[in-house]
What we know:
The protein is of the alpha+beta class. The site of zinc ion (ZN) has 6 residues, from loops.
Amino acid sequence: MKKRKIPLRICIGCQQQKSKRELIRVVRTPAGQVELDPSGKKAGRGTYLCRCHSCFKAALAGKRIERSLKHPVSLAVIELLTEQLTPGAEDEQ
Ligand SMILES: [Zn+2]
């Protein structure tokens, strides 16, 4: 029996392993741009983040996206990321 393996990636916010489709991929392209990668297929160095506000805040507070990608992240990218978060999740405790 062939079993399809679900690719797991670690969220930089909560450090937990999740399946790729649950996470937002942020990629630093070979051209040196930091972009969101909804397809998960862009070339470059990628990092992953849950779609929840707490992980996003933890990642921002620790500058973990920058550190992971070894590249500064522009405000435009942060705003795009914010739009990808699950609405209402910020109210969870
Ligand atoms: Zn997370």
